[in-house]
Design goal:
This protein is α/β, with parallel strands linked by helices and 424 residues long. It is 40% helix and 18% strand. The strands form three sheets. An eight-stranded mixed β-sheet has the order 4-3-2-5-1-6-7-8. Strands 12-13-17-14-15-16 form a six-stranded mixed β-sheet, sandwiched between helices. α3 packs across α10 and α4 packs across α5.
Length: 424
């Protein structure tokens, strides 16, 4: 019997030893034993390489503004572990997590001796989420972020009322495949029979794969640039201004052209699942949306911005925003990543854009060492600093922007320390 939240989290983290085990059989087995709670919810299923979290957050705020209670399931956590399962943005209480672990642990123990094998960390958290919203905490809508890929992701037992694929990029290539088409095939696995699909994929080959799967599943497609559009308006300040489908004048508080696109996905989903959603809820929801670590200004002087650009496409999007907002400043990247990413591609992009790079590391089993990253880089102005000692480099400067970027695990681990030190 797990006695408290600390014990519960330690037990969950203990499942990390099982690594990543794609497949749905363990999830189906646990759901059946729990009374199939995943079939008792109104879910929106959001997949994609980049933009999942931001799209989910935009959608949550829109629905909340309309008066709905909204559950969410996201990963990884950013500030506190229990935020992964949340209601209206508030993390599930610690006592609820303890109760959930005591519900799931006997099933996990039983699976250890089963031919299917024990469930992974992500599988047990996903099972807890389905049980929480299916049985313990009834809400109007659940917004579920795919963990990895789609087809064999633990969340993909859900039967949603709408699905969304935000983007396709070369990420997790060792698991999902090393071409855009291969990755698109895995992401397209979340498309369900006759269930609307909201889509924003630019790569033609990847798009073809997804549209073909949607046709097979008879899923109505709402595609960015076709069924809905975004017309950007110039804005050098914080956030973005744009016109949605030549109809709604909208504004976000999150910076980057890509955030206007993510917002448009959320608006489209909201209109699909609630036909009469108000213009006021859409406008207010977008302005109120905040998602930590996504082009977030941590300090004005020195200018320190945190952005979770954890793959080549993410770095390109980050650079577009820097050039839009801070074209006159020099760029000093502070970068850390996990070792199973395509480090050479990411670092070559940093080399291309940086005036200076500091490579660092963080406390995580898969984290790459600072020296390993340093060796990959060919930049003339680079250094390697293990741990958080790089923070002392962040000195006031009128012509430099410090971009803290890379793995979301790195950003979440340093987030509070960095804010506290800079604000003090």
């Amino acid at each position: 019997m797990i006695q408290n939240f600390e014990e519960a989290v330690n037990w969950i983290h203990g499942r990390l030893r099982l690594g990543i085990k794609p497949g749905l059989e363990r999830m189906k087995w646990m759901m059946e034993r729990l009374g199939n709670p995943h079939l008792k919810i109104n879910a929106v299923h959001i997949g994609g390489t980049n933009g999942k979290g931001s799209t989910l957050s935009f959608l949550r705020h829109i629905l909340q503004e309309e008066g709905y209670t909204v559950g969410s399931f996201t990963s990884p956590y950013f500030e506190v572990f229990n935020e992964r399962i949340a209601v209206n943005g508030k993390p599930a209480p610690e006592e609820d997590w303890t109760e959930l672990v005591n519900m799931i642990k006997p099933l996990a123990d039983e699976l250890e001796d089963h031919e299917l094998g024990g469930p992974t960390e992500f599988e047990v958290i996903t099972a807890m989420m389905f049980y929480y919203f299916g049985e313990m905490k009834k809400v109007d809508f659940i917004l579920i972020e795919v963990g990895l890929g789609g087809r064999f992701d633990s969340t993909n037992i859900v039967e949603p009322i709408c699905t969304c694929i935000t983007s396709i990029g070369l990420d997790h290539v060792s698991i999902l495949g090393d071409t855009y088409e291969d990755i698109a095939f895995e992401k397209a696995g979340i498309i369900k029979n006759e269930t609307p699909l909201v889509l924003n994929v630019k790569h033609e080959g990847a798009k073809e794969v997804i549209l073909s799967q949607a046709e097979k599943m008879k899923a109505p497609v709402y595609e960015y640039g076709h069924q809905f559009t975004v017309r950007h308006q110039e804005n050098s300040g914080v956030g973005e201004q744009f016109v949605y489908t030549d109809e709604l004048q909208l504004k976000t508080s999150m910076s980057g052209y890509h955030q206007a696109e993510n917002a448009s996905l959320a608006v489209t989903i909201a209109r699909l699942i609630k036909k009469n959603i108000s213009k006021q809820a859409i406008q207010a929801g977008l302005v109120k949306t905040y998602w930590p670590g996504r082009f977030e200004i941590i300090s004005e002087d020195p200018l320190v911005i945190m952005d979770g650009a954890h793959n080549p496409e993410g770095i390109e999007m980050m650079m577009k925003t820097i050039q839009q907002k801070y074209s006159s400043r020099k760029i000093h990247f502070i970068f850390a990543a996990v070792s199973d990413k395509d480090l050479s591609q990411m670092i070559s992009k940093l080399d291309q854009y940086a005036d200076q790079i500091t490579f660092t590391s963080f406390d995580f089993p898969r984290a790459a060492k600072a020296g390993q990253l340093y060796q990959i880089s060919s930049h003339p102005h680079k250094k390697a600093i293990e741990g958080a000692d790089w923070i002392s480099q962040l000195t006031p400067s009128e012509n430099t922007v410090y971009m803290v970027t890379g793995s979301l695990y790195f950003l979440s681990g340093i987030y509070r320390t960095l804010k506290n030190k800079l604000n003090n």
